[in-house]
Amino acid sequence: MKKSLLAVALLSTLSTGVLANQAGDILVRGGATMVSPDSAKAGVALDGAATPLSISVDDNTQLGLNLVYFFDSNWAIELLAATPFTHDVVLHDPSGVTESVYGANLDGAKLAEVTHLPPTLSALYYFNTGTAFKPYVGVGVNYTIFFDEKFTPTPDSVGFDNLELDGSFGLSAQIGADFELSKNWSINVSARYIDIGTKATFDLNDPFNVGLEGKGSATVDVDPMVYSVMLGYKF
């Protein structure tokens, strides 16, 4: 009987207001964040004319950080930050154009590396569950800045140069949940979609005098899913 009363008391503690978010609470989280871009390939144009080439961007995982400020038990604002993400850009050449021109097939080759930061500001709505499990939904706005864009040695040696990617504004949407381990500590999981689109431009020189040169471009819809698992501390 005593064990049953103790179990009831513990469950009651988990559903009391001491675990509820309150106005002025600040939640700091840190953990792993993976950016998984849309797998669709972006066509490459040269001097505005379409080519058989296309590119895609791979996944990357970094340290994710975010800060949440609560206006009341339901509404909060969240800032997502992270250490810079670096993605491989892969070249796709199913028709073998690069082999016929350069004598080397670059299909599936790592064309370049790009680094970016995707800070995102979101409004969150927490659902009242009366327990330590606190699910939420959110919408926000993102600005992604790209930097340190560079071609890898093989593409660079055949004339690819001066890679640049434009910054991107876009909306985001997410679902997530905190599970409170104690009054201050919690574990968070979340998944969000971010609308990121950028235009990549580059120069294609003609080191082999084959008549293939000009200004290249590709419109890349990165549009990643962003997954996070974090440990949080509430002040």
UniProtKB/TrEMBL annotation:
Keywords: Signal. Residues 1-20 form the signal peptide. One of its GO terms (biological process) is transmembrane transport. GO terms for cellular component: outer membrane. PANTHER family: OUTER MEMBRANE PROTEIN W (PTHR36920:SF1), PTHR36920. This is Outer membrane protein OmpW. The lineage of its organism: Bacteria, Pseudomonadati, Pseudomonadota, Gammaproteobacteria, Alteromonadales.
